[in-house]
Amino acid sequence: MKQSFVNTVIVALWSALIVTGLFMVIPIPGSPVPIVLQNMLAVMAGLVLGPLNGSMSVLLFLVAGALGLPVFSGARGGLAVLAGPTGGYLFGYVGGALLAGLIAGKPKADKVCPFWKCAVAALLGMLFVYIPGLLRLSLMFQGNWTKTLAAGFLPYIAGDLAKAVLMTLIAPALRKFYVHFQQYGSHT
Question: In this structure, is the dihedral angle defined by the CA atoms of residues 7, 9, 12 and 18, taken in order, positive or negative?
Answer without folding.
Answer: negative
